[in-house]
Structure formats: structure tokens, C-alpha cells
Design goal:
With 191 residues, the chain is an all-alpha fold. Helix content is 87%, strand content 2%. Strands 1-2 form a two-stranded antiparallel ribbon. The longest helix is centred in the middle third of the chain and has 78 residues. The relative contact order is 0.13.
Length: 191
């Protein structure tokens, strides 16, 4: 049983450095208890480091996916902003045109034109013609506003996920640094 444990220790590169063996004639181990304990500590630390390295690799992969999602969300946000800006511009233009026609109608009325006059009929016809486009432009602004809000929320969420990944990596890095700082102590105990 002891020989099997020694063989297991020696299977590791750190164990080979120590050169622990079992003398079957005397029934004794060639290394001191302190040397074996130092080796075990070094192997435990090595296993911890490997575990944190794997966790770090997974965290970087997760961060890469989060960054890709964030870029996609930023693209969608930019596109939504552009569509909203265009819809707002169209709406503003239609509104300006109708306002000008209403002002023209009020001016004609002040000048004494009857609502049935050809000039007033022309102004009213133009207002009615623009009204359909104005209503569509107003709906487009409302729809693009909602899309913009949704895209903004999605981008904020994606940015939060990137930050969470970054924090996780920083935490893992801190633990890895602590392990690296204490590693020389384990090496000194081995000899």
C-alpha cells in the first residue's frame, strides 16, 4: 500500500525530483516525512493552479462570447438609432409642411378668403394629402422609439455581462497571483 502511494507520487514530475523510494528490505521510505509533506503540498498547489488555469480559460472564453454579444448589441443599437433619427427627421419635415400650410390657411382667412375659395380649398387639400404621411411618420417615430429602447436595454445588459466576465477574470487572476506568491514557500519546504 505504501509502495503504491510512493509510485503515485513519483509519477508526477515533482515527485521525480524528490526521488522518493521504498526500501522493501528495511520497510522504510528514503525521504523524510517533511520532504514527503512538502511534495504533497507542492502537488496540491499544482492541482490548484491547474484548476484556476482551466477556470481562467473558461472565463476568457465566456468573456469573448460576451464581447461578441456586446458588439452585436451595439450594432443593433446603432442601427435602431439611425432608423429613429430618420423617422424623427421625416416626422419633423411632415409636421413643418403641415404647419406652413395651416399658417397659410390662417393668413388667407385673415385676408378675408372664404373657406370655399379656391385658395383655401387648395391649402386644405394639401393638408389632407400630407396628413396620411404625417400619421405614418408619427407611428414610425413611436415604433422606432420602442426599438431604440429595447436595443439600448440589450446593449446595457450585454455590457453588464462583459463587466461580470471581466470581474471574474480579475478575481481569478488575484487568486492565481496569491498562489504564485506562496509557491516559493512550498518549494523551500522541499529542499
Amino acid at each position: 500500500l505504501l509502495k503504491d502511494k510512493i509510485d503515485l507520487l513519483n509519477a508526477n514530475p515533482l515527485g521525480e525530483q524528490l526521488g522518493v523510494s521504498f526500501n522493501e528490505l528495511t520497510g522504510k521510505v528514503t525521504a523524510t516525512r517533511e520532504e514527503v509533506e512538502a511534495l504533497i503540498m507542492a502537488l496540491e498547489r499544482q492541482a490548484q493552479v491547474e484548476g484556476y488555469q482551466n477556470a481562467m480559460k473558461e472565463a476568457y472564453e465566456e468573456q469573448a462570447r460576451a464581447i461578441i454579444n456586446q458588439k452585436d448589441a451595439l450594432y443593433a443599437l446603432t442601427e435602431a438609432q439611425e432608423k429613429h433619427n430618420q423617422a424623427s427627421q421625416d416626422y419633423g419635415e411632415k409636421r413643418r409642411q403641415i404647419t406652413e400650410l395651416v399658417d397659410e390657411g390662417m393668413r388667407l382667412e385673415k385676408e378675408g378668403y372664404d373657406s370655399m375659395s379656391e385658395e383655401m380649398q387648395t391649402v386644405n387639400a394639401k393638408i389632407l394629402e400630407l396628413k396620411g404621411g404625417y400619421d405614418k411618420a408619427k407611428i414610425a417615430v413611436q415604433e422606432t422609439s420602442k426599438t431604440l429602447i429595447d436595443a439600448s436595454s440589450a446593449y446595457a445588459q450585454a455590457t453588464g455581462e462583459v463587466q461580470e466576465c471581466t470581474n471574474k477574470i480579475e478575481d481569478l487572476d488575484s487568486v492565481m497571483q496569491q498562489l504564485a506568491d506562496t509557491a516559493p514557500e512550498a518549494g523551500e519546504a522541499m529542499g
